[in-house]
Amino acid sequence: MAITLENQIENSKRMLLDEMNFDLDKFLALNTAEAINEYISGFDGFNIENIELLAASLSQIGFDDNCSDSRLYLEKALQLYELCTLKSKTYSFEREANIRALKDVLN
Fold this sequence. Notes:
Helix content is about 75%, strand content about 0%. It is mostly helical and about 110 residues long. The longest helix has 18 residues, at about 70-85.
């Protein structure tokens, strides 16, 4: 049986909810940077590296041509990377390249 993108997304959602009580659907519905920052800040252990991993995962889903909500995933990934830039005291060339790539696709 082939693993579809939808199955992978559902498995990821379930894992995040079970392991961290992180509701990906709720997160995707947030519409402001402040709301995203507030939601993310409510979780212990969510540091810059973890936020970047979540952004990378959302980017990967969004860049998949078969994803029906690809734009939403890419927008949320961009917001997460930008949040990392605001919170981090260290400049990241990789993060900035990811931000640029997302902005190019979204514009």
